[in-house]
Amino acid sequence: MFINPIDTSALDAGKTTTSTKPDSATNPNAAQDRFLKLLVAQLSNQDPMNPMDNAQMTSQMAQINTVTGIQTLNLTMQTMAEQFAAMQTLQGTTMIGRTVLSEGSKLTYTDNTGKGYFDLGNAATAVKVEVVTPGGQVVGTVDMGAQTKGRHDFTWDASKYTGDKGALKFRVTATNKDGAVTATNLMQSKVTGTGSNAGALMLDLDTGSTVKYGDIRAVL
C-alpha cells in the first residue's frame, strides 16, 4: 500500500515545553497520544484507491498497546524497587547496636584477652592460629589440635603484648590427611548504621568498614 508523506507540522503547532512537563519519552500517555495523532494523519493522507485495511490498523493498535503496557510495567517496577529499598533500609535499623560476624582477621578484646572466629571447610587433624603484626611478625600462637568442619572460636592471652593490640591480625593454618583445609577468618564487630547501595542493604561497622547484609555470617 502506498501512503503519501505525512506533514506533521500541524500536529506540532502550538507545542510548548515547560520544566514541569513529564518526560514524553517515558510517559505512556504521551506515547499513546503521539501514536493516535500519527494514525489519524495516516488515515487522512492515505491513498483513497488503496486504503489501509483493518488488519494493518489492528496490528498498529496492538503494537501501541504492547509498548504502552511495557512502559507502564517499567514505571511500576521502578516505583516498587524504590519502595522496597526504603523499607529495607528502615528494617535494617533494627540491626544497629547488634554484634555480627563478617569476614576479617581482626581480634576483639575483653580486658587482655583477644578473641577471633573462623570457619573450616572440612574437618582438620591439626589447627593452628597465629597472631601477627602488620609486618607479619608472629607475636602469639594458639594450638587448637583437631577440629570438626564448621565454625570455631579461639582466645589469646594478650597481657604480655605491649604494642598496639588493635593493629594485630590472626591467620589460621589447618591440615588433614589430604593436605591443607580451607579456613575463612571471621571478625566480630558492632553495627553502627545502615544504608542502601544499588538496592542492597549495607551495614556500617564499628571497625570502619561497610558490608552487605548478605555477607554477614552470624548475629551474636
Topology of helices and strands:
Layout: H1 9-12, H2 28-45, H3 54-92, E1 99-103, E2 108-110, E3 113-120, E4 124-132, E5 138-147, E6 150-157, E7 169-176, E8 179-180, E9 183-197, E10 200-205, E11 210-212, E12 218-219
Give the tags.
bacterial flagellum biogenesis, 8-stranded antiparallel β-sheet, disordered N terminus, 2 domains, Basal-body rod modification protein FlgD, alpha+beta, elongated, 220 residues, Immunoglobulin-like, 36% strand, FLgD_Tudor, FlgD/Vpr_Ig-like
Q: Using the coordinates above, name the CATH class of the largest domain.
A: Mainly Beta
CATH second-level architecture of the largest domain: Sandwich
Shape: elongated
Beta percentage is 35-45%
Structural domain tally = 2
Are there runs of 5+ residues with pLDDT below 50, and where?
1-20
Please write the string of helix (H) and strand (E) elements: HHHEEEEEEEEEEEE
What class would the helix/strand composition place it in? Answer: alpha+beta
> If you consult CATH, what is the topology of the largest domain?
Immunoglobulin-like
Rg over CA atoms: 33 Å
Portion in helices: 25-40%
Average pLDDT: 80
Q: How many strand segments? A: 12
| End-to-end distance | 74 Å
Count of runs of 4 or more consecutive helical residues? 3
